[in-house]
Write a structure and sequence with these properties.
The protein has 63 residues and is mainly α. Helices cover 63% and strands 0% of the residues. Helix 1 runs antiparallel to helix 2.
Amino acid sequence: MEPSERLFWTVLLMAVFCAGQAIRDVRRRNYPMAVLATLCMLLVLSTPIGSFTARIELPRNSR
């Protein structure tokens, strides 16, 4: 398994964990912690994961 693929699954697992915490906190009527868990989940899901690098070489003269 490549490091970028491992990072993807780790981030996804963290997001699922935060979603579970948010659901648990809503059921316990602990709304501030549910909001924090939801924000945490959104932050984790918005993290960019670089998978590869593309290199494009253009000619020096355009004529």
